[in-house]
Each structure stands twice: as structure tokens, then as C-alpha cells.
Amino acid sequence: MISGLGLINVYQFFRDVKKMEEPQWLKDRMAKEDPNFVIATCGEDGSSELCAETLNLFAGVYGAEAGNIALKVLARGGVYLGGGMSPKLLKTLQNGTFRKAFLDKGRLSPLLETITVRVILDQSCALLGAAAYAESRAAEFSGMSERAASRHQ
Q: Are 33 and 88 contained in the same domain?
């Protein structure tokens, strides 16, 4: 549910099961454009109640799962949200729904209050991380790191 595919499923749930109105202009945009982009844009700017409700539920589930993971790994250094969705949903992630669900862990809530949550805005972050990992693995096999070698010249 916490993915691009999940977002459209939540939208369809509100539209089809909860019978929220999907105006014709929104239906047209959903047919012509990337549905996730439309939901994110129209939910963030408030032009569609259906999209805003979709993002609100998405943020709540995202926050709850992020809180679960933070507890599982005891993320004392913080939780960093990456990927394609988080940077596009900053307004939604900051409206309180995410944080409330993140902290809703009963007697463990005070521990989560000490853990910061940040959104990674750099779209190349995953590639940089993969490159750093590849370099470190190569250094294990070769006994030398290209980055370390360039610092000693």
C-alpha cells in the first residue's frame, strides 16, 4: 500500500467503495496523465478532495510503517524517507498525519519522539549509495579504494 501502486489503489477505494466524487476534469486527467502524479498534485494543492483524502490515508499508513521500522531497528540516528513519492508529498507528510501515525505506538511513543524523520530530496541519492557500496565491495576484493587512493596523491 505504501508505493506508487498502492496510491492508485487507495484512490480507487475512496472513489469506488466510499463513493467519493471523481469530477470529470479529474477523470480526464487520470486517463491522460500518470495517475500518481495527478493524485499527488491535486491532493497537495487541494483541488480535489478525493486526492487529498487519498494522500492523507497514504501518509497515515506510511507513518505507521515508518514508526514500526524505526522501532524494529532502533533508528536512533533518524529515519530517512527516500524514493520517488516522499519528495513529491512534502506538504502531506508535514500536515501531521504522518507524524501522528509514526508516534502512535503506545508506551513506546516517547522513544519515537526522540527519532527525527527527514525526507531525502536528492533524486540521485540511491545511485550515490549504490556506487559507494560497489566501491567498498571492490575495495574488499582489491584491497584498495579508488577514492582513498586519490586522497593520498
A: yes
| Sign of the torsion formed by the C-alpha atoms of 84, 87, 90 and 93 | positive
User: How many angstroms separate the first and last alpha carbons of the chain?
Assistant: 50
pLDDT tens digits, residue range 118-128? 999 988 888 88
CA 61/CA 132 separation, integer angstroms: 31
Cα 60 to chain centroid distance, Å, stands at: 11
C-alpha to C-alpha distance for 96 and 108, rounded to whole angstroms? 19
Shared-domain flag, residues 152 and 88: no
- The pLDDT mean for the chain works out to 90
Q: Check: pTM over 0.90? Answer yes or no.
A: no
